[in-house]
Design goal:
Helix 4 packs antiparallel against helix 5 and helix 5 runs antiparallel to helix 6. It is globular, with a radius of gyration of 16 Å. It has a five-stranded parallel sheet, sandwiched between helices. The protein has one domain: P-loop containing nucleotide triphosphate hydrolases (Rossmann fold, 3-Layer(aba) Sandwich), CATH 3.40.50.300. The longest helix is centred in the middle third of the chain and has 19 residues. By secondary structure, it is α/β, with parallel strands linked by helices. Helix 7 links the parallel strand 4 and strand 5.
């Protein structure tokens, strides 16, 4: 079945394809490319929007609040579209909390389990690191990738791994996207 036919058939329920992975693994670029290529609504990574507007300082309570804002923001961006693309979800917040603060509050992990409509394109960190004031782990990308993979597997959610550089990454992502749409 083609992606277009799958999109039409997705109208029966809500499905969110989440682009996730370590820092600087091409998530935001891939989210926008897929959205444009497939003519699907998308929600950018809310943490980036928030931290760019409010500064980079935060504590664990603020991270929990940010995770709640993230969910509301993403829902507002895509509405009731049967199929949409998210640039990260609460798995990212769980990994973030564990890396920065040593543990994840139950408020985040409990909310994460509720995101049952999510299927994942997990980005391999096989592209060059792009420095950015909001990024902090250039040497830990493989570890962070493995943590994201582990969380997806523990939740027993469908996923595909996306690898490759440049146009090949997009071609691989499109093929993986189509596989995720088939039950």
């Amino acid at each position: 079945m083609s992606i277009e036919a799958s999109i039409v058939n997705a109208g029966e329920f809500l499905m969110r394809i989440v682009i996730t992975g370590a820092e600087s693994s091409g998530k935001s670029t891939l989210t926008e490319q897929l959205s444009q290529r497939l003519n699907l609504p998308f929600a950018p990574e809310y943490a980036r929007v928030y931290l760019e507007q409010n500064g980079q300082d935060y504590d664990l309570d603020q991270l929990v609040h940010l995770s709640q804002l993230h969910r509301a923001y993403q829902q507002a961006q895509v509405g009731d579209a049967p199929l949409a693309i998210f640039d990260t979800d609460l798995i990212n917040y769980k990994v973030w909390a564990e890396v920065v603060f040593g543990h994840c509050p139950t408020m985040i992990s409990d909310a994460m389990t509720e995101e049952s409509s999510h299927r994942y394109l997990l980005c391999k960190p096989d592209i060059p690191w792009q420095p950015d004031p909001l990024r902090h782990n250039p040497n830990d990308r493989e570890v962070l990738y493995q943590r994201h993979l582990s969380e997806i597997q523990q939740l027993n959610r469908r996923y595909e791994i996306v690898a490759g550089v440049g146009e090949l990454r997009l071609v691989n992502a499109l093929a993986a996207f189509e596989r995720l749409l088939v039950d």
